[in-house]
Amino acid sequence: MLGLVVCGGSRHAGAARRAGDPGSAAEAVAGLCRRRREHLCPMPRCSLYSLCLLLCVLLPLYNNASEPEGPAPDPAHYRERVKSMFYHAYNNYLENAFPYDELRPLTCDGQDTWGSFSLTLIDALDTLLILGNVTEFQRVVDVLQESVDFDIDVNASVFETNIRVVGGLLSAHLLSKKAGVEVEAGWPCSGPLLRMAEEAARKLLPAFQTPTGMPYGTVNLMHGVNPGETPVTCTAGIGTFIVEFATLSSLTGDPVFEDVARRALKGLWKSRSDIGLVGNHIDVVTGKWVAQDAGIGAGVDSYFEYLVKGAILLQDKELMSMFLEYNKAIRNYTRFDDWYLWVQMYKGTVSMPVFQSLEAYWPGLQSLIGDIDNAMRTFLNYYTVWKQFGGLPEFYNIPQGYTVEKREGYPLRPELIESAMYLYQATGDPTLLELGRDAVESIEKISKVDCGFATITEAFLKERDKQAKWNGIPLLLQKLYVNSQPNSDFSKCQSILKEISPLLSMEAMVFVTEERKFSQESTFPNTYTFDLFGGVDLLVEILMRPTLTTQKKKQKISDDLTKDCLSILYNTCICTDGVTKRLAERNDFVLFLFTLMTNRKTFLQTATLIEDILGVKKEMIRLEDIPNLATLVSSFDQQQLANFCRILAVTISELDTGSDDKHTLLAKNAHQKKNLGPTCAEINQATLLNIPGFIERLCKLATRKVSESTGTSSFLQELEEWYTWLDNALVLDALMRVANEEPEHSSPDSSDESGVANTSSRTQLPQSMKIMHEIMYKLEVLYVLCVLLMGRQRNQVHKMIAEFKLIPGLNNLFDKLIWRKHSTSTLVLHGHNQNCDCSPDITLKIQFLRLLQSFSDHHENKYLLLNSQELNELSAISLKANIPEVDAVVNTDRSLVCDGKRGLLTRLLQVMKKEPTESSFRFWQARAVESFLRGATSYADQMFLLKRGLLEHILYCIVDSECKSRDVLQSYFDLLGELMKFNIDAFKRFNKYINTDEKFQVFLNQINSSLVDSNMLVRCITLSLDRFESQSDMKVVHVLSECRLLSYMYQMNNRTTFLFRLINIIHVQTLTQENVSCLNTSLVILMLARRKDKLPGYLNALQKMEYDEKYPGFILNNFHSLLRFWQQHYLHKDKDSTCLENSSCISFTYWKETVSILLSPDRTSPCALVSYIEEPYMDIDRNFTEE
């Protein structure tokens, strides 16, 4: 089965959303028919003509929209507007044009255009159902049955008759029952509309009787193909049948329709050029191309569309493979800056640099194959044209930015709005709703007349074209070009840039502020014009000229001119799609920018531009390629180094693939096999560690107080830095916010971190702004340290971080800065997403918690989170319990631990217990504390936390507060498991808190609500129970008999139920680092059973449960595949296997032996899975690929 309709992601998103599921309803229909295969799409192409199709697409766009929070397009309002527009056109057709094919809205009469079928009525059928007008639908069906006759002496377009008549009838037929229409017995394989569609389609079949299988363009409905009919047909007229014809074959049982459609597709496929392109028109008799222009627009468009939709409809890999091959050629030869031009099909040379309005279907098609990023970029190009003219002209000259003469009109084509619908389904991007709003407003304002909606006239669009406001940018660029030539006076360049800069910076300001959401204009014409006329390339050339010239006396560029160039480039990048990506592809320019960072006057502008460029760069830059990197870094002051950390964050983090399936263990293993050496990110991490003093400087930055950050910078310098951190947001607005807060929080004895500076605000930024500035510095530094801690050089980084006292330094800042009292400011760092709270305070807290988690995880330095008194407490706990003291505690250097009354871990516990129930911090807090417990289980560590009430706090959150957040629950379950594992005192405390059956049932319900989240706790309980059963201590025996949790897990039927469910919720293809723990928990249950010679009993129980659930073999076959994967996955994973061994106290050798026994092919072995799978259900040789 093809997984086609899947949306991609971006680096801002955590998970991709599914755009649709083409298979579910299909199987239901096919089951009713009891015919051929089960691949039948419930809704073939909705072929509505002109305005009807436009409205059919607009309506679902708004039907699927959520209610807005601000003054964005109101979905309810526009739903009603769309309905009103439809009925304005439909009622006028009935009154003025029926029974003709079409309404002529200007003259209020009708005309036949496609065969005298009352075509508008057929087109409107499914629209009526979508609008819920079942009564009118039934009336129109009756009218069509009485009035439409296909046995007439009329020459009809094969293409148009198929998509409009056959498609319209089929879609209405298949929608009818869902819409509440009473259908006849045998539906969907019988019905009046289906019979009409079949009759119409049979009239088209003679056109396919050619040597190539490719059909003629026209057929006489009574006599077949006329003897003198031209054999030249457009590509779309050949390849646009598979959707309707395959549906007909499935519903009628007659394969002839699908067969001829497939033969036509194969004829086109064989005729493609050596570079993989098809032309515009072909001779269907000889197979020779007549028109050799290749593109995605008129004459070709629906061929590509039907390959994709046919592949989805039929779940046909061959059709999808054809399209993907075409897609490669299209991208290689026709795509330029996310536009698609026309090229010569054999050479790939540009023949027409135009955009045709029919091409606007392409972004929607891209979204159907999951190529969301490219789809959005192309869509926004097309949307720019719409905004310029209030509609899409038939032809638009891309280089000139103008319409093409005699092709200026807009006949209400729906393709762009259809693409918006698909993309909105995939992304939820509100920009797409704005297009829907613009379409409604434009069509009503420009196109509405008394008798319907008319084509937007060429004269009107010409007038709009003349009124396009370029603000003199092309002329200014021409002057800039003349004055920037070698030996020119660069001072004139600066004066020209001073004129250009305000035009672009105003648009950039709108882009990066909250006000953008409320703007009626979502495009930025000035920056677009600047790029369109070559401004970006010209500025790059000006900046790099001193490095490119061979003259002995090189031209000098002033700092002010450099700053202006960099600022304009940055503003263009953020407002115009594709610019940043183009710059990122120029490695010479990217490396050149680093050389500009040596100049303090241009540092901030350079750093901001580099960060933006590296964020979209496909291939990560190698830090070792930067000229004199160590010297460059050593020249930075503390503020510059903090800014530089924003750039480093991009270069040392593994690239996000943007697709969920790339994060599966299968995909990761395959990637590791192909890339055996270190990744570029890992190489960059090593490069940083080789810079003398780098980690020490980061530690000082992370732990310095705000008072220490105040240097000799002037007010203007500080303000410039603040301005840059806000990504060019409204600085005055930000200043007003924090200035208003200042009097509220100031006092004469305020500390360094919360008080007001004594100096006047006229000469220094307010202290609260300094605090916020420092917070933003620290979160970038902590991020870099955190990434380095998780890298290959972890031990080296650990040693340096300990030596430079990062942990005690953070402990000293905990109350005053890191977990200070929440400010009343609503200022956010990047406010583009109104649903994301990215305030500096919150971001710093999360980054701090991530650092603690990485620092503590499986490392003996975790005891640096305590102070000396707390370390003594750990020793006392071990002594009292008569167990050896942990070596890491004994070996901890007391001069490096936290000072003060409380260590960092204790402080964290205190704030954790005060957090609101649904706070997102709970997840990170629990992860940080859990990492302190991970590794070899330490009784002293557990008791240290138990004495501070951690277990009771966790149980309160799980049981009494009934927390609903899955992330928080997962982190609390994991923490609870580590806290209780092998600790009889913890189970005793658990039983004391969960002291009623009702409470215990709530606890079980939380566990069972998601085993992926709670399986680690299940594993810890199982391991603990096994150890307790082997002990004879009276205290243990008493707790075993009293504890509800242990008693529950003691029952074999409960353990087998957990085992069955754990195996059932995972599959090899969906295994990730997150859910592979379910597989290991399953193995723990079976390993412990094997120890007691009870493994056959568990396997027998699984077999019985399979039969009870009525799918014999499914669970055991799945488990067999999972274990085969497990063997491969852990074969060379020394770190992972050590973690399994330490956390379970079961040797990894025993893990491997158990898996080998379970996978034994010996069907006589009572411990082999194959012994419990009956032969008819055996599927253990199933292949799983890592490609």
From TrEMBL:
<comment type="similarity">
    <text>Belongs to the glycosyl hydrolase 47 family.</text>
</comment>
<dbReference type="GO" id="GO:1990756">
    <property type="term" value="F:ubiquitin-like ligase-substrate adaptor activity"/>
</dbReference>
<dbReference type="GO" id="GO:0016020">
    <property type="term" value="C:membrane"/>
</dbReference>
<comment type="function">
    <text>Involved in the endoplasmic reticulum-associated degradation (ERAD) pathway that targets misfolded glycoproteins for degradation in an N-glycan-dependent manner. May initiate ERAD by promoting the first mannose trimming step of ERAD substrates, from Man9GlcNAc2 to Man8GlcNAc2. Seems to recognize and bind to exposed hydrophobic regions in target proteins.</text>
</comment>
<dbReference type="GO" id="GO:0005829">
    <property type="term" value="C:cytosol"/>
</dbReference>
<dbReference type="GO" id="GO:0005783">
    <property type="term" value="C:endoplasmic reticulum"/>
</dbReference>
<dbReference type="InterPro" id="IPR001382">
    <property type="entry name" value="Glyco_hydro_47"/>
</dbReference>
<keyword id="KW-0378">Hydrolase</keyword>
<dbReference type="GO" id="GO:0019902">
    <property type="term" value="F:phosphatase binding"/>
</dbReference>
<keyword id="KW-0256">Endoplasmic reticulum</keyword>
<dbReference type="GO" id="GO:0048820">
    <property type="term" value="P:hair follicle maturation"/>
</dbReference>
<dbReference type="GO" id="GO:0004571">
    <property type="term" value="F:mannosyl-oligosaccharide 1,2-alpha-mannosidase activity"/>
</dbReference>
<dbReference type="Pfam" id="PF01532">
    <property type="entry name" value="Glyco_hydro_47"/>
</dbReference>
<dbReference type="GO" id="GO:0006511">
    <property type="term" value="P:ubiquitin-dependent protein catabolic process"/>
</dbReference>
<protein>
    <recommendedName>
        <fullName>alpha-1,2-Mannosidase</fullName>
        <ecNumber>3.2.1.-</ecNumber>
    </recommendedName>
</protein>
<feature type="active site">
    <location>
        <position position="415"/>
    </location>
</feature>
<dbReference type="GO" id="GO:1904154">
    <property type="term" value="P:positive regulation of retrograde protein transport, ER to cytosol"/>
</dbReference>
<feature type="active site" description="Proton donor">
    <location>
        <position position="160"/>
    </location>
</feature>
<dbReference type="InterPro" id="IPR012341">
    <property type="entry name" value="6hp_glycosidase-like_sf"/>
</dbReference>
<feature type="region of interest" description="Disordered">
    <location>
        <begin position="741"/>
        <end position="763"/>
    </location>
</feature>
<dbReference type="GO" id="GO:0031464">
    <property type="term" value="C:Cul4A-RING E3 ubiquitin ligase complex"/>
</dbReference>
<keyword id="KW-0326">Glycosidase</keyword>
<keyword id="KW-0325">Glycoprotein</keyword>
<dbReference type="InterPro" id="IPR022162">
    <property type="entry name" value="TRPC4AP"/>
</dbReference>
<dbReference type="GO" id="GO:0016567">
    <property type="term" value="P:protein ubiquitination"/>
</dbReference>
<dbReference type="InterPro" id="IPR016024">
    <property type="entry name" value="ARM-type_fold"/>
</dbReference>
<dbReference type="GO" id="GO:0140627">
    <property type="term" value="P:ubiquitin-dependent protein catabolic process via the C-end degron rule pathway"/>
</dbReference>
<dbReference type="Pfam" id="PF12463">
    <property type="entry name" value="DUF3689"/>
</dbReference>
<dbReference type="InterPro" id="IPR036026">
    <property type="entry name" value="Seven-hairpin_glycosidases"/>
</dbReference>
<feature type="active site" description="Proton donor">
    <location>
        <position position="394"/>
    </location>
</feature>
<dbReference type="GO" id="GO:0005509">
    <property type="term" value="F:calcium ion binding"/>
</dbReference>
<dbReference type="GO" id="GO:0005975">
    <property type="term" value="P:carbohydrate metabolic process"/>
</dbReference>
<feature type="active site">
    <location>
        <position position="301"/>
    </location>
</feature>
